[in-house]
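Postdoc handover notes: sequence design on the structure in folder B. Input tokens:
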């Protein structure tokens, strides 16, 4: 596992999503290291310079949580604060259920906790995918999306980063019919640089995917039902660790993928929810779009904890 590790002090571990690498957190790593924390951002399984097993079944949350526990053991830490976004958020939620003794606090961006649903995730998106394009469905068949995205890594990344940001309404991709590719469903992106993403930053992110392709990340989608099966013991569990939540006003997950009232569900199932912050006009990539606001949120939350 490749790990970006900077600073000294209490460990804070950052967990990224798709299609990201550790570099998505570079603003936060610098800010936390400067404030006296040990900021750690791994390339999660299947990404960047971390191993990418061939078997899609190797990408369950349970397996990657094992990677994170091994990381804590390797640095000699009993606990850490965990920060997550996108798939990294789901990882932090499940980690907090499976190993609450190892989580000093959970700090989650844009993907609120919700209880385990009564049916597997695919049951909820199957009918929607019959009516319009839906990436959750499109990504399930091994090889198809892998080939499309790997054929044009930079084109895909610019389009998906732009569409997920607060500068676009991602759910407009649902206006496209089923049976097309993801690049056909995504909007054309304006030329770089953008106000929140420089050409150099984009080149750093794109370089890894030009080398590895996207199969490792796509395999996380192919385990959504398997993750559901593996969490039967936690069906009624609540998040008991200290929790802080931040979201972008224009985040598509909050709008379209997290239920009718995601904040009410979050509050009902996270008894130690200490703060909820909305970032105006920000989208899904809030840590890049509004780094100062995210850094302030994290540092204030860390200061409020008794960490030793």
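Designed sequence:
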């Amino acid at each position: 596992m490749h790990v970006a590790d900077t600073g000294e002090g209490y460990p804070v571990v950052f967990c990224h999503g798709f299609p990201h690498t550790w570099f998505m957190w570079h603003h936060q790593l610098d800010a936390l290291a400067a404030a006296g924390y040990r900021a750690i951002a791994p390339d999660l399984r299947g990404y960047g310079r971390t191993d990418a097993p061939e078997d899609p079944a190797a990408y369950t949350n349970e397996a990657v949580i094992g990677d994170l526990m091994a990381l804590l053991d390797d640095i000699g830490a009993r606990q850490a604060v965990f920060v997550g976004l996108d798939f990294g958020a789901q990882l932090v939620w499940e980690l907090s259920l499976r190993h609450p003794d190892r989580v000093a606090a959970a700090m989650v961006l844009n993907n609120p906790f919700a209880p385990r649903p009564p049916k597997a995730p695919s049951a909820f998106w199957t009918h929607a995918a019959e009516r319009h394009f839906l990436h959750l469905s499109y990504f399930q068949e091994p090889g198809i999306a892998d080939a499309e995205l790997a054929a044009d890594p930079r084109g895909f990344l610019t389009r998906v980063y732009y569409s997920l940001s607060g500068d676009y309404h991602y759910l407009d991709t649902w206006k496209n019919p089923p049976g097309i590719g993801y690049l056909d469903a995504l909007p054309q992106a304006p030329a770089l640089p953008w106000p929140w993403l420089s050409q150099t930053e984009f080149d750093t992110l794109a370089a890894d995917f030009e080398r590895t392709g996207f199969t490792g990340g796509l395999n996380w989608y192919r385990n959504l039902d398997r993750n559901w099966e593996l969490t039967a013991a936690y069906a009624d569990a609540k998040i008991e660790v200290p929790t802080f939540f931040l979201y972008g006003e224009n985040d598509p997950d909050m709008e379209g993928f997290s239920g009718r009232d995601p904040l009410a569900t979050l509050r009902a199932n996270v008894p130690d929810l200490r703060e909820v912050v909305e970032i105006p006009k920000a989208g899904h990539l809030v840590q890049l779009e509004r780094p100062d606001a995210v850094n302030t949120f994290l540092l204030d939350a860390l200061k409020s904890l008794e960490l030793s």
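Context for whoever picks this up: The longest strand covers residues 103-109. Don't rerun without checking with the PI first.
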